[in-house]
Amino acid sequence: MDNKLLKYKDSKFGLFLIRRKKYAPLLFFIAGFTWDSLTLGRIDRLYDNVILCTYMTLLTISIYFYNLVDSEKWKNKFIQLYGKYLPLAVQFFLGGLSSAYVIYFSRSVSISKTASFFLILIFLLIANELFKKRISNRYLQFCAYFFVNFTFLSFFVPVILKEMNTNIFIISGILSLASTLLLIVLVYRSSASTRIEIVKWKMLGMILAIYILINTFYYFRLIPPVPLALDKGLVAHSIAKKNGKYIVTYEVDDWYIFWRDHKVDFYRKSNQKVYVFTSIFAPTDLKKKIYHVWKWYNPKTEKWKTLDKIGFEIVGGRDSGYRGYSYKSNLINGEWKVDVITEEGLVLGVVDFNININKPNLKPHIITREF
User: What is the DSSP letter of 84?
Assistant: First the structure.
């Protein structure tokens, strides 16, 4: 076994890791994120489900054996000899799972309502710089594991059950909590060093704190409603349906404003209807009630005033999302937005625009597209 280890260290890959030992965890973490960005597509696709389940399984196995490396039971055996590479595996699978959620989450047109939860995910990605020195800390390991486990199950369970509501979210949370505590118990019983390092009540308190935090985010509607995603959201002059296609006419901005589909300043004629078109991705066979909530900003009270709430049911399965629209007439000047929400009030995205009934100084750039 020693000869094999020496041979491995002398290999190109082994020398690469030794020379770049300082940056190896970060590189493996980024590798997991990049690989998922290039390969993940639909959240309900078999390939995606197999990959993410594999990541979650291998992350669990890597953490388990990493904590057993110093046990006499594994002395001079494969796990102990190659245990120094297990942190890299943990980094890679953490990167893969975190990136998957960021990828699915970022498909939404707007993240303004759920930016705080998104920032936590970004922090998890950046905090890898700290993980490379502190990955041996059991508290950090299990807390990071529980967070990615919870976020993974929060969109994986709805995909499997083809249903999404508060009860499903609660089930996902209980499953993640139970599986994480089971892993901790197994490691605690099998590893003497873990029993020395971990204070049971402290570890349990940290896990429960994360559990309460995520549920608090959900209660205040700060978690994006993955696996649903708002693929497209824009304000339009007219919408017509022909041969199963939606013919949408709307204004666009200059070419360099590439991050937005429609022009924010909407110039309308008197009595002209204003349309909001959305396409919402949902997993195959998942049905959900969606609402367009029309709001106008009152400059006197400095608050948003809800003027209408229009609902329709979507059916998942279409690659480009389930298409739908709502409209209103006689909109007054000012700031407007349409919140696209679920029946539980979770925000899929926001379509914002400014209404102006005055004639524009420049000729608007109007296009017509099929969706």
Answer: G
Q: What is the pLDDT of residues 299-329, one digit of tens each?
A: 999 999 999 999 999 988 888 789 999 999 9
Q: The domain containing residue 331 runs over which residues?
A: 229-370
Q: Is residue 312 part of a domain?
A: yes
Examine residue 170 and state whether it is found in any structural domain, yes or no. yes
DSSP label of 331: P
Q: Specify the pairing of strand 245-251 against strand 334-342.
A: unpaired
Which residue in this structure is represented by tokens 């960021």?
Answer: 102
Same domain, 309 and 202: no
Closest CA to 93 of 68, 126, 62: 62
Look up the CATH number of the domain holding residue 253: 2.60.40.1930
pTM over 0.70: yes
Residues 160 and 274 grouped into a single domain: no
Q: Which residue has the tokens 């942190």?
A: 87
Summarised one tens digit per residue, pLDDT across range 23-66 is 665 666 666 667 777 777 777 888 888 989 999 999 999 999 88
Q: If DSSP codes are grouped into helix, strand and coil, which group holds residue 321?
A: coil
CA distance 260 to 263: 7
